[in-house]
Amino acid sequence: MENFNEYLNQIEDPKQKEIMTTVFNFVDENFPDLEKVIKWNQPMYTHHGTYIIGFSRAKAHFSINPEAAGMKPFIERFDQNGYTYTENLFRIKWTQDTDFDLLKDMIQYNLEDKAEITTFWRHYK
Questions:
Q1: Burial of 43 (0-12, 13-18, 19+ CB in 10 A)
Q2: Are residues 106 and 66 in contact, defined by beta-carbon separation less than 8 angstroms?
Q3: Beta bridge partners of residue 53, listed in sequence order
Q4: Which residue, 7, 41, 61, 69, has fewest beta-carbon neighbours within 10 Å?
Q5: DSSP assignment of 88-111, as one string?
Q6: Cβ neighbours around 70 below 10 Å, total
């Protein structure tokens, strides 16, 4: 898969395709300096070679993965939105609204928190 368009073209459900397109367009418009890459068959955004945020989809939801450190400051907002989550990602059901302010805040947090990181993933000692 070379780009996000190929990823989107694989989505058969029109509603799911529309939602994912809207999410990607939002990120592109608000963070034009982010690089779009596909790794492990998942669309993700990077900056200066480091991972910022990634996406995946499933039958009942799509997931957003900002890494564990990028999740912690936003747990209360996941609960407020009714999103389920694990240590590394949160899920938005196809029937739920996407909190774009939350998405923007998470990306901004990761950009600031990872400004000096030169590896793809955060490494903890």
A1: buried
A2: yes
A3: 45
A4: 41
A5: S-EEEETTSPP-HHHHHHHHHHHH
A6: 22
Q: Which residues pair with 91 in a beta bridge?
A: 63, 84
Residue with tokens 């890459």: 37
Model confidence pLDDT, tens digit, residues 51-73:
999 999 999 999 999 998 899 99
Q: Which two tokens stand for residue 114?
A: 């990872």
> How far apart, in whole angstroms, are the C-alpha atoms of residue 7 and residue 89?
20
Both structure tokens of 33: 């300096």
Residue 102 near residue 74 (C-beta atoms within 8 A): yes
Quote the pTM value: 0.91
Look-up of token digits 């993933």: 121
Single-letter code of the amino acid located at 87:
E
Cβ neighbours, 10 Å, residue 122: 15
Give the model's pLDDT for residue 5.
87
Give bridge partners of residue 46 from the DSSP assignment. 35, 51
